[in-house]
Design goal:
globular, 188 residues
């Protein structure tokens, strides 16, 4: 997986956190850089941690399923992507509270990073170096989350569904690319 694919993957995975950050910004009175950074650190931290956990789980099973790893990557990324596209059509805002308390943020950070766990398993099958990959995912998510809080505070829900939809499509396309490369249809 090259740097372009990794950046696209990071953007795709971060869209759930972005969407929730927009909702946080919408519900939060008086958004400051500090408040936006707290949201970004929670989401970025968990988005970096979960792929590492998934990677180490994936490494445990890699030897026994090497022949079908590209299919697993395709299916996992496809399911995550399709689910994100489906959720993009929902009108609710999962983070209707502007609270930044530990319990609230922990629950949201875990919820938005579950897909990153599955991505980590995929990265193990693709033999991607996990520390740089997880760092990129975490940094991109931090930046998107901070921007999402600010945008939610200024613009409201206008960009939430579009971002989530785009992220889902990106993940589906990356999964398809992985499958087609392993089947020999695409050669890079």
């Amino acid at each position: 997986m090259g740097i372009v694919e990794l950046l696209l993957l990071a953007v795709g995975v971060s869209m759930d956190a972005f969407a929730v950050s927009v909702c946080k910004g919408l519900a939060m009175p008086g958004v400051t850089v500090k408040k936006a950074s707290v949201v970004g650190m929670w989401f970025g931290g968990f988005q970096a941690l979960m792929p590492m956990i998934g990677y180490f789980l994936g490494v445990q099973f890699k030897e026994s399923i090497t022949a079908i790893d590209h299919w697993i990557a395709f299916i996992l990324l496809g399911i995550i992507g399709i689910n994100m596209v489906r959720e993009s059509f929902e009108k609710d805002c999962p983070a209707s509270s502007g609270s930044l308390d530990v319990k609230n943020m922990f629950m949201l950070a875990v919820a938005t990073s579950i897909d990153a766990l599955a991505v980590g398993i995929t990265l193990a099958f693709l033999q991607v170096e996990i520390l740089p990959a997880a760092s990129i995912i975490g940094i991109i998510t931090f930046l998107f989350s901070v921007a999402g809080v600010k945008m939610g505070n200024i613009f409201g829900m206008k960009y939430k569904s579009r971002a989530e939809r785009a992220g889902g499509i990106i993940l589906c396309l990356i999964g398809t690319q992985i499958l087609l490369e392993h089947l020999g249809v695409l050669v890079f």
